[in-house]
Design a protein that fits this description.
- The protein is of the alpha/beta class and 227 residues long.
- Helix content is 40%, strand content 13%.
- It has helices at residues 3-19, 61-71, 92-101, 117-126, 140-146, 152-169, 190-206; strands at residues 30-32, 77-79, 106-110, 130-134, 175-182, 210-215.
- The chain has a 6-stranded parallel sheet, covered by helices on one side.
- α3 runs parallel beside α4 (117-126) and α4 (117-126) packs across α6 (152-169).
- The relative contact order is 0.12.
């Protein structure tokens, strides 16, 4: 989508919003596509682990291409995740390339556990616009208590390897964000905050574009059990 058309869409949305219209006059400008409903972790706050196995699967590349072809005229960006782990879909990098070549910037969020050296290079080749990683806890014990099935050191190694490879290539994409959840029932001590600050500095020094802390998302009424 060219800049003029994008600006026109955004202006019409703003006008409709200011006018209080319940039906806008433009198609959606942002789209979420769940490329896979499967995940290799059992994070304590995520409902994915409660989903029946029969409801989990990968989106096919053909279906994804059909979606992109239909959305290319109006969608400004495309998110490739929801409850699953995108890196489990063997067609993810082909999906990214297809959407980016169609002029739709892609973004996805992942846990980083499947980011092998080969996957890092394929990710950089595909060049999504943004990738964000869940690194909750910023220390081994709290991280592994939340991200059940993951190993703290291995996940860090994966992310740092991606940052190093991006720097070696001189690549500008993807924009890399590190995310940390602030859990309602897990208050952090001053010592824990110091470790958070130290690891935040390590990520930024290694080339991460942004490190953010965000409130725990309330998927349902159930809350994270107190530790």
């Amino acid at each position: 989508m060219n800049l003029f058309r994008k600006a026109w869409h955004l202006c019409r949305i703003l006008v409709d919003y200011r006018a209080g219209r319940t039906v806008v006059r433009t198609p959606p400008i942002r789209m979420w596509v769940e490329t896979t409903a499967r995940c290799n972790l059992r994070c304590v706050m995520c409902p994915n682990k409660e989903m029946p196995a029969a409801e989990k699967g990968h989106m096919s590349l053909d279906l994804f291409r059909k979606i992109v072809d239909e959305a290319a005229g109006f969608v400004h960006d495309l998110y490739l995740h929801h409850r699953g782990e995108p890196l489990l879909n063997p067609n993810l990098f082909d999906m990214i390339q297809y959407a980016e070549r169609a002029g739709i910037p892609t973004r996805f969020h992942c846990n980083g556990t499947r980011l092998t050296p080969e996957a890092c290079d394929r990710l950089l080749d595909a060049a999504p616009s943004l990738v964000s990683f869940s690194i909750d806890g910023f220390d081994k014990a709290p991280y592994e208590a939340v991200r059940v099935g993951a190993t703290f050191e291995k996940t860090l190694d994966n992310v740092f390897h991606l940052l190093a490879r991006r720097r070696e290539r001189g690549a500008r994409k993807p924009y890399v964000v590190i995310e940390k959840i602030i859990f309602r029932n897990r208050p952090e001590t001053p010592d824990a905050r110091a470790r958070v600050a130290a690891l935040t500095r390590r990520f930024l020094d290694a080339g991460a574009d942004e490190v953010v802390e965000k409130a725990e998302y309330e998927w349902a009424e159930e809350s994270l059990p107190e530790s």
